[in-house]
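Researcher: I'd like a structural prediction for the single chain below. Treat it as a standalone chain; there are no partners to consider.
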Amino acid sequence: MNPPRGGLYRRASRGQCRYTVARVPLVPESERRSVTSSLIRPRLRGVADIFAAAIAIPAILILVDHASPGTPTLIAAVYGLCLVILLVGSAIYHRPGWSLRTGLILRKIDHANIYLMIAGSATPIVATLIPGPGRTILIAMWISAALGIVKTFLWPRAPRQLSSLIYTIIGCIPVPFAFQIGDAVGDEALRILAIGGASFLLGGIVYARRWPNPDPFVFGYHEIFHLFVFAGAGLHYSVIWDLVA
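Model: Treating it as a single chain, here is the predicted structure.
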């Protein structure tokens, strides 16, 4: 009889009983280190995502209707579509009950959507620098986002620290032009954008380090990561509301 794939099993030999360690299941090292891996799912996983998506959909519809005709409406629609795709996709992926095959596909889509959200959220802000360096910045961000999406599907098991670093680098592409953005949007709006960006950054650090992890069975590090993202998205929405008016 074949032994189980993990843990201890007992084997008897000529009246003697001894314990042997069976083979450990082929679980990636990054997953074995986490107490909130798929083996233990916090009860509140995905709950906040549902509320965020439910709020975002009407908020984006109102934003697009609020935007001035022409280019501002198009920019608001691009931003809104990227944000809604991220939140709805996340709400779907993080709910329980998916088969392993479906869950892995949804995971790739969820991680790819982060690149969409980063580039989409920056679009209304960087567009304030057109004419000027804004066009070049947008091209750089969208190409980087496209490459990140390709990376997600070709290398889905990339270390989360690397993924977090790539997210951060793409999100920081406009940072060298912060003073020019401030001149275009105003000091108060720039401060709100900076706080929102810091919230995204803190969320990425929590995601990469898997800490703090207050209650792995109910509300873990991943839920905290999402709350930082939602907070940053809300702050940026408040600025974009004025930019597209």
